[in-house]
Every structure is written in structure tokens, then in C-alpha cells.
Design brief:
The protein is an alpha+beta fold. The protein contains 14 helices and 19 strands. Helix 1 runs antiparallel to helix 10, helix 2 packs parallel to helix 10 and helix 10 packs across helix 12.
């Protein structure tokens, strides 16, 4: 029997109590589409339903349950994904026009927050792993050096785990930040499964337990919650919860979806009641996969099989829930032909995401398919320039977007100053940001990624073989 979340039960009671002379327009009588039965308790901020932006009733209770599960001081439900948490969180910690320290491999939403806040940014560029061409961990010593160089920085922003599952030593970094009175925001969008009880099953190093001041987590990425749902967790006393709430009021919709919020509360209840058994089974599936791919000779699987963590000295730790395969677009097509759809294909790398909700034999079948692939294909080599070092920042992102610009052929752009973003999505980490110098290494990366079948997105007005640059 499916157990309904406490919040869902409360919404269902409210929805049947009185006739709705209020939004939504379906009036809980007309199903918007087949299967969308949650319309029956799709409410608005009526009496008794609470208000996400001024919660003191059933929503406050639900968010308190989630905070307690994670061991956080405070939790906010997000119905605009981790994106809205990053926008609001960064703005709350870094006043308009101030300086921040940010890892260069942050998601585009971090760059958009920097852009909107007219922030100056000191980048931390993690070392690149030569075997897979992905960013490694942010080193605590580099954070300390950046804070020494920028003593007026308002916050440090980093991503852990990364899209590919690389973790940084958040505990050490938090101590370095706090010793200087600086806040730490961690984009843990891909790490909502780093709960206290998960540590016994191998998921250790979560940002909440490590003491980060604000932690943004996409519940929908690895946990049973609907797409677009996320958590914003607060720790300690350095971040002002009132300012966080004010910025959420700015960036998040004033009409939050009650079905989405009920999904987050339902996820919390599932974790509390079934999470331990589900995580134990998840670990067992991953361990079987690890053993099954140890005899692969040509196909690399990052931190699985023959590829151990100690083969990647620039990794502090790795999230085994992420399976990064070096099989390229041909290998991805082979997976699709055998019934698997990967999360990402970028250059030679193909990402398979797992979760505690996978079928029991899903990874066993994946191992079988990888063995069949290896028998008939030559896996690709890592791209030499897949992660170009960023060019020098000649002005802030906001300044670059406000100044006059023009479009030039991409091949002729070396030495120019970018006036747009370029990224592969996913993962949505800019290869080039406005205000940065265009380098030959960046142009080489574009050529290699395009040749490997990866489509690059030009966000700012140029076409595929063009680039918008400052005049």
C-alpha cells in the first residue's frame, strides 16, 4: 500500500472542505491531462494551506521535517529547482556589486547569479583529470590562498559533488572560510542523497554535515521527487535566514505548486521510513556492478572496476552513484539500442546516473551490455582539450554583457573578449564566460567537442561558427 505524505493528506482534507471560489482554474473538477490526478488537491494559498513565502503552518511543519532529516538548522522547499536556490542564496550572501570566490566548474545558474548581482569573481579552477577530462576537486589550500588574495570576498561558492560525481573536502573548506568569517555556499544539486544515514552505505562528505552555510540540493536528481523540486538548507549563524527568505521572494514564483511541495514532503517521508533499506540495496547493486566490470580491458569506467579512486590524485572523493563511461557517441548509441538512455554524452564521456530507486537488475544488465560493446568497438581516447583553462577575466560578466559587442568568425576570435556564454548542456558549465579572453585552447576544445558529436550552445546571439565579442 502506498503511504501518503502528511502534507498530501492535509491538502486533500482542505480540498474537499469547501467549494473553491479561487485558483486554480481547473476547480479540482477538470483533469488537465490523463494521469494528472494530483489536480484534486492542487491548491493555492487559501486559509489553512499556508504560504511558502511566509510559512507558519503545514508548509513550515513539512520543511522542518526535512531539516531534521538532514540535520540542518533550516530548510526551504524550492519549486524552481536548484537554480532558484542558487540565485537567491548567492544574492543573500553577496550584496550587489561585491566580490565572491567561485569554482570555475560551477553550473550556469551560479554565473547568472554573478551576472545579475554585478559581482566581481575570483575563480578557483580545479585541476583537470587527464584520463577522463573532467574537473577534479577544489583544494582547500587554493581556497585559503584565494581568501588571502581577496580579503573582502563575501562568500565562497563551489560544487560538490560535480555532475560527474567528484567531491571536494567541504569540511576543511568550511573551516577555512569560517575562520575568516566568510560564508560557504555549496551547490549540492547532485548530492541530495548525502543524508546522515547514508554515510554507513558509503555516501560520506555531504555539505550539510560538513558545515556549509547554505546548501542547495536537487531532490529530483537522485531521490524520488518530481522534476523541479529542490531543497535549500541552512547551517550555522553566518547566513541571515531573513535575507534568504527575501531573496527567495524575489526569485521564486509567488504561486508555488502544491503538488511539487507535497512531492518534497513525500520524499522526506520515504527517506525516513524506507531510505535505509533502499540505500543498502543501492550499495549492493553498485558493488555488483563494480565487480562485474573489473575484467573490462579497453572500456574505462571512472572509479569502477580496474579504475580506482587512487588513480585520480586530483579527486578528494567520488560519488559511486555516478557511472562515467568513456565510450563516446557510438557507445551511447549502443546503450540506446540495448534499451538504456544515458544522462549525458559529452565528447568521449557518457554519464549513467543511478539512484536508490533503480530496478534490482538494471546495473547487472548495464555491465552485460558494456562487455558486448567492448567486444565489437574501440573505445575513444580522452579529448586533449576538453577542459580548456579559462582565459583571463578582463571585466565582470555584467560589464561584458552591457558593453557594445559584435560577432566575428569563431576561428578568428583568439585574443578577443567574449560577450556571451558557451557551454555544453548538460552539464551546463561554461567553457567560456562573458568578459573572458578567448584563448587558442578554448577554440581547440570547441573543435574537438564538435567533432565528437557534442553540440555547444552559444548563449548570447552568435551562431555555431561565430562568437559575440566586445568591441
Amino acid at each position: 500500500m502506498t503511504v501518503k505524505s502528511t502534507l498530501q493528506q492535509q491538502l486533500e482534507t482542505l480540498s474537499t472542505a469547501r467549494y473553491p471560489l479561487h485558483m486554480p482554474g481547473h476547480k479540482r473538477r477538470v483533469r488537465p491531462a490523463p494521469g494528472l490526478d494530483c489536480y484534486a488537491w492542487d491548491l493555492t494559498e487559501i486559509d489553512g494551506a499556508d504560504d511558502l513565502h511566509d510559512a507558519d503552518g503545514i508548509l513550515a511543519d513539512a520543511m522542518a521535517r526535512t531539516a531534521a532529516l538532514y540535520g540542518a538548522r533550516r530548510c526551504w522547499y524550492l519549486v524552481g529547482g536548484s537554480t532558484v536556490g542558487l540565485l537567491a542564496g548567492i544574492r543573500a550572501l553577496a550584496p550587489f556589486g561585491s566580490t565572491v570566490i567561485a569554482a570555475r566548474n560551477c553550473h550556469k545558474a551560479v554565473y547568472h547569479a554573478i551576472e545579475l548581482g554585478h559581482l566581481a569573481v575570483h575563480y578557483l579552477t580545479p585541476p583537470a583529470d587527464p584520463q577522463f577530462g573532467v574537473y577534479g576537486s577544489v583544494h582547500p589550500a587554493d581556497v585559503a590562498a584565494a581568501l588571502d588574495a581577496e580579503p573582502g570576498a563575501k562568500c565562497v561558492i563551489l560544487t560538490s559533488p560535480t555532475y560527474e560525481g567528484v567531491l571536494s573536502d567541504v569540511r576543511s573548506i568550511a573551516k577555512i572560510c569560517h575562520a575568516r568569517g566568510v560564508t560557504l555556499l555549496v551547490d549540492e544539486a547532485h548530492g541530495a542523497h548525502y543524508l546522515p544515514f547514508a554515510a554507513q552505505y558509503g555516501w560520506q562528505g555531504g555539505a550539510v554535515a560538513a558545515g556549509a552555510d547554505l546548501v542547495v540540493q536537487s531532490a529530483h536528481k537522485t531521490l524520488p521527487s518530481l522534476t523541479q523540486t529542490a531543497f535549500l538548507q541552512l547551517n550555522g549563524d553566518l547566513a541571515d535566514p531573513a535575507e534568504v527568505e527575501r531573496q527567495l521572494d524575489v526569485f521564486e514564483t509567488s504561486s508555488p505548486s502544491y503538488p511539487l511541495m507535497a512531492s518534497l514532503d513525500g520524499c522526506t517521508r520515504w527517506l525516513a521510513e524506507e531510505g535505509s533499506a533502499a540505500f543498502a540495496a543501492w550499495r549492493a547493486r553498485l558493488d555488483r556492478f563494480d565487480a562485474a566490470v573489473k575484467d573490462l580491458q579497453k572500456t574505462k569506467v571512472m572509479c569502477f572496476g580496474r579504475d580506482a579512486l587512487d588513480a585520480h590524485p586530483c579527486f578528494f572523493a567520488h560519488d559511486s552513484g555516478k557511472i562515467l563511461l568513456q565510450i563516446g557517441t557510438e557507445g551511447a548509441a549502443y546503450l540506446r539500442a540495448d534499451g538504456f538512455e544515458p544522462e549525458m554524452v559529452c565528447g568521449p564521456n557518457v554519464l549513467a546516473m543511478t539512484s536508490p530507486c533503480d530496478e534490482e537488475n538494471a546495473l547487472d544488465r548495464l555491465a552485460v551490455v558494456l562487455h558486448a560493446w567492448e567486444e565489437q568497438a574501440v573505445p575513444p581516447a580522452p579529448a586533449a582539450h576538453i577542459l580548456p583553462p579559462p582565459g583571463a577575466a578582463r571585466c565582470t560578466i555584467a560589464e561584458a554583457l552591457l558593453r557594445p559587442a559584435h560577432t566575428v568568425p569563431l576561428a578568428d576570435a583568439a585574443g578577443e573578449t567574449a560577450a556571451e556564454y558557451i557551454w555544453a548542456y548538460p552539464p551546463g558549465v561554461p567553457l567560456l564566460a562573458p568578459g573572458e579572453e578567448v584563448t587558442p585552447e578554448f577554440l581547440a576544445a570547441c573543435r574537438e567537442l564538435e567533432a565528437a558529436g557534442t553540440r555547444l550552445k552559444h548563449i548570447g546571439g552568435s551562431g555555431k561558427m561565430e562568437l559575440r565579442v566586445m568591441r
